[in-house]
Specification:
- This protein is an alpha/beta fold and 484 residues long.
- It has one domain: Alpha-Beta Barrel (TIM Barrel), CATH 3.20.20.
- Helix 15 links the parallel strand 9 and strand 10.
- The two termini are 29 Å apart.
- The protein binds 6-O-phosphono-beta-D-galactopyranose (BGP).
- The site of 6-O-phosphono-beta-D-galactopyranose (BGP) has 14 residues, from loops.
- Belongs to the glycosyl hydrolase 1 family.
- GO terms for molecular function: hydrolase activity.
- This is Glycoside hydrolase family 1 protein.
């Protein structure tokens, strides 16, 4: 009888994921410069769709810098993790985390992005954070840029449209690889690298209103990020061969709206265009279907000699991704379009949605894990998954059974995928502690196992309260995913 896989491997990484701009606050402390993320919350509410915020434009930048918005600029105080990290990491350790994803705020290290010297106070801060994690044997999983392009690079080059960003990013990467050598084993270059083609400002600090051809500018910026990611991987291998480099995709699995061959083909195209990003990162070359897509849309990417060779020579070691929803693809869209996701997918009648319209699909996770493993045969890592919800405090408790149900159903399917043979490194729940939502810039879309007493206007005591899901997740980790 052939041996079959029974469950998660013993060194499976369990924990949670965050981003500096959504958790730290201290937006201008210890020499930090402004970053793209500091402007996102000033997009006028009427311009926002339910969850997919519209782009920042130059006039929003001007008004923000001129202090024309009410209250402190920028408002983004996160949950003050910059000062509370010791207490919060202690709570993560109480749940038994073996890994914790965070981003280094690039503009803490190079305030303008192009500074000749790094900011020692910024480097020191993350020394302290990594030291605290090490105290509890929690592996840091570190994102170099989580939508956090320094504002100086936006002002000087219009963000990643400028090829100069490659060199500045590699200098930043080299600085932190040297500083934290031996402390960080898992690195990620760009968070959800595909978002740059949905939201160029968020993904790459690109002000589309300054560009003749915004779509082409976004693909040009993306190319610069691909090259920068490969050059950073090259540096990492030189500085710390033990460390591993990962890429990170917002994986949006698309289903055909009907069994009509045209809908099936449309779903294939949508999935190919989503996986193109990990194709480049993991296989080291642009796939032909993408070259055809660019040609048919009259998009030209300017490349320099050596770019393609660098991509080929320095692919990533592992593939990480976020998973929240699945979409429907239709060659002839009719029927209700759900406002609830970045791609304005049609509503799937077989799926429930979150309060923000994200279509909840646990089985989709097993499906896409099998697809990605078959496609790449590289270790996979779920570095974001979770349910944003309106939580209520009732006599000092938060009974978030809906969140436990969501996570339980996703972890069940993840386990099935592992039994199917998928090489899965770990599972990091997004927002293990309530933090600022990326798309709404509000606190009320809560994800945490830990409640933070802070409302959308920044009012509250900041008190941390364990939700019911806190003890549930602690048991999941203690039993390596057995007791759900
Ligand atoms: C992903 C981002 C995270 C986080 C998550 C939840 O796209 O990588 O930063 O924000 O989405 O989204 P939201 O915060 O909009 O609910």
């Amino acid at each position: 009888m052939m041996e079959t896989i029974k469950g998660f491997k013993d060194d499976f990484l369990w924990g949670g994921a965050t981003a500096a701009n959504q958790i730290e606050g201290a937006f201008d402390e210890d020499g930090k410069g402004l970053s793209a993320a500091d402007f996102v919350e000033y997009i006028p509410k009427e311009q926002r769709t339910k969850d997919n915020h519209m782009e920042v434009t130059s006039d929003v930048i001007k008004k923000a810098l001129a202090g024309e918005y009410s209250g402190r600029f920028p408002k983004r105080e996160g949950i003050d993790f910059y000062h509370t990290y010791k207490e919060d990491i202690k709570l993560f350790a109480e749940m038994g985390f073996t890994a914790f994803r965070l981003s280094i705020h690039w503009s803490r290290i190079f305030p303008n992005g192009y500074d000749a010297e790094p900011n020692e106070a910024g480097l020191k801060h993350y020394d302290e954070v990594f030291k605290e994690l090490r105290k509890y044997n929690i592996e840091p999983v570190v994102t170099l840029s989580h939508y956090e392009t320094p504002y100086g690079l936006i002002e000087k080059y219009n963000g990643w449209v400028g090829r100069e960003c490659i060199e500045h990013f590699v200098t930043y990467a080299e600085t932190v690889f040297n500083r934290y050598k031996g402390q960080v084993k898992y690195w990620i270059t760009f968070n959800e690298i595909n978002i740059i083609n949905i939201s160029p400002f968020t993904g790459g600090g690109v002000l589309s209103d300054l560009e003749e051809n915004p779509e082409e500018a976004a693909y040009q910026a993306l190319h610069h990020q691909f090259v920068a990611s490969s050059l950073a991987t090259k540096k990492l291998k030189e500085i710390d061969p033990e460390a591993q480099m990962g890429c990170m995709l917002a994986r949006m699995l698309s289903y055909p709206n009907t069994c009509h061959p045209e809908d099936v083909r449309k779903a294939q195209v949508d999935n190919q265009l989503n996986l193109m990003y990990t194709d480049v990162h993991a296989r080291g070359e642009y796939p032909n279907f993408f070259k055809r897509h660019l040609a048919e849309n009259n998009i030209t990417i300017q490349m320099e000699d050596g770019d393609l060779a660098v991509l080929k020579q320095y692919p990533v070691d592992y593939i990480s991704f976020s998973y929240y929803m699945t979409l429907l693809s239709s060659a002839a869209p009719e029927g209700e379009v759900t406002a609830g996701n970045l791609m304005n997918s049609l509503k799937n009648p077989y799926l429930e949605s979150s309060d923000w319209g994200w279509q909840i699909d646990p089985l989709g996770l097993r499906t896409l894990l099998n697809d990605m493993w078959d496609r790449y045969q590289k270790p996979l890592f779920i570095v974001e998954n979770g349910l944003g919800a309106y939580d209520k405090v009732e006599e000092g408790r938060i009974h978030d059974s809906y969140r436990i149900d969501y996570l339980k159903r996703h972890i069940e399917q993840m386990k099935e995928a592992v039994k199917d043979g998928v090489d899965l490194m770990g599972y990091l729940a997004w927002g293990p502690i309530d933090l600022v939502s990326m798309s709404t810039s509000e606190m009320s879309k809560r994800y945490g196992f830990i409640y933070v007493d802070k409302d959308d206007d920044g009012r509250g005591t900041g008190e941390r309260i364990r939700k019911d899901s806190f003890d549930w997740y602690k048991e999941v980790i203690a039993t390596n995913g057995e007791n759900l």
